[in-house]
Specification:
Helix content is 34%, strand content 18%. It has twelve helices and twelve strands. A seven-stranded mixed beta sheet has the order 4-7-8-12-11-10-9, sandwiched between helices. It has a three-stranded mixed beta sheet with strand order 1-2-3, with no helix packed on it. α3 packs antiparallel against α5. The longest helix has 37 residues. It is elongated. It starts with 26 loop residues before the first strand and ends with a helix. The structure holds zinc ion. Zinc ion binds next to loops.
């Protein structure tokens, strides 16, 4: 015969009528006993076959009270977890244990879910117990994890010995851009002639970009098609010439300066155009400066830049801020002026624009044109880089292709 014991459960007072019971027909209790509800025993044989008879504990209370002694179950679970954690040989095994106990479908999670079967008044106490158990297991896992990490580090320190005598890996540091090389060359030449290098803002007042340079309101250069206006008073400078006006306004004379910098025009990108490129502006203001000084200066500049045999040619031109104005060609440094593909057969290559400063410009910048005169010139930096390094497409300068840039 089976040993039957009647117990009152401290945890559960729910309605267990019929077979709609939340607990399994057979539940483990401490000391290896199992519990079952009376209602299930309408056919005890079926059930009892599954468990040893003497281990069956039967509850007969009318309202069907059955519950596990959660405390014992939790203790048992914690013990098992501890064993598993201690036995884990690797972080992977440890993780398996974590999943088995703390995972979504883990034992502790299942137990937490079965809280709803516990009488409401007992839930806080049992819930707290579950949480404490979880914290205990988590703490054990964390200790074990740290242990693994420590071991791993020790092992790494033992195996990964660095040979400091090995030569280091070379890092690519890059080098100067053709534009920078050309600019430094131009700066070197002019600094050698006693010029200073001046900078000005890239975002400029229309007043400096146009008006003070004698470019009237209706001049086509002011067209919004050509210039990036920010509002009707401010724009991205379309030339480095505004630096002339800014320097003259300071009133410190004489002036010998170059102003290299980025300028902006509303151009489509092609082999010879870009919406953003670089100019180098030059300005000299002093007493008794003439066009002869301008010629001498630029001839010397061309010889320094392209070689001592270089000849220059001044062709009359028009710029609003200089009078007279000229465009300057240099003799082709490839063919020496005989004519080749590089100079398109003419023997000459155009490099810059220049002229003596217009009296209106001097006046507008606060300088007396009766006392002072001067000359100015502007050269495209890209033009020099393209010529000097025989690059046939300006776009190459902006594409940052390391294979291209490496050549200079
Ligand atoms: Zn040529």
């Amino acid at each position: 015969m089976l040993r039957v014991k009647q117990v009152e459960c401290p945890f559960f007072y729910g309605n267990l009528g019929g077979t709609a019971v939340i607990f399994r027909p057979l539940c483990r209790l401490r000391d290896g006993f199992f519990a079952c509800i009376k209602d299930y025993l309408y056919n005890p044989k079926v059930l009892l076959r599954k468990k040893r008879q003497e281990q069956l504990l039967l509850f007969t209370q009318e309202r069907g009270i059955i519950a596990m002694e959660m405390k014992d179950r939790l203790q048992e679970l914690a013990n098992r977890a501890k064993r598993l954690i201690e036995e884990a040989e690797s972080p992977e095994k440890l993780n398996d244990a974590r999943v088995a106990f703390l995972g979504k479908k883990g034992e502790l999670t299942a137990m937490l879910k079965s809280l709803r079967d516990v009488a409401p008044e007992d839930r806080p106490a049992v819930g707290q117990l579950v949480n404490e158990t979880r914290e205990r297991i988590e703490a054990m896992m964390e200790d074990s994890r740290k242990n693994f990490e420590k071991k791993l580090l020790e092992q790494k320190l033992k195996t990964e010995v660095i040979d400091v005598t090995l030569p280091a890996k070379k890092s690519r540091i890059g080098h100067r851009h053709p534009n920078s090389i050309a600019l430094e060359e131009v700066e070197r030449i002019f600094i050698g002639m006693g010029y200073e290098v001046v900078e000005g803002p890239e975002v400029e007042y229309a007043d400096y970009n146009f008006t003070k340079l004698n470019i009237p309101e209706d001049h086509p250069a002011r067209d919004e098609q050509d210039t990036f206006f920010i509002n009707d008073k401010i724009l991205l400078r379309s030339q480095t010439s505004p630096v002339q006006a800014r320097t003259m306004e300071k009133g410190i004379l004489p002036i010998r300066m170059i102003a290299p910098g980025r300028v902006f025009r509303s151009d489509e990108v092609d082999a010879t155009h870009s919406p953003s490129f670089h100019q180098i502006e030059g300005l000299v203001i002093d007493k008794h400066i003439t066009f002869a000084d301008l010629k001498g200066t630029l001839e010397e500049f061309a010889r320094e830049l392209f070689g001592p045999e270089t000849k220059t040619k001044f062709r009359p031109h028009h710029f609003p801020f200089t009078e007279p104005s000229a465009e300057v060609d240099v003799s082709c440094f490839k063919c020496g002026g005989k004519g080749c593909r590089f100079c398109k057969g003419s023997g000459w290559i155009e490099i810059l624009g220049c002229g003596t400063v217009h009296p209106n410009v001097l006046r507008m910048c606060g300088i007396d044109p009766e006392e002072y005169t001067g000359f100015a010139f502007g050269v495209g930096l890209e033009r020099i880089a393209l010529l000097k390094y025989e690059i046939d497409d300006m776009r190459l300068l902006y594409e940052n292709d390391a294979r291209f840039l490496k050549q200079f």
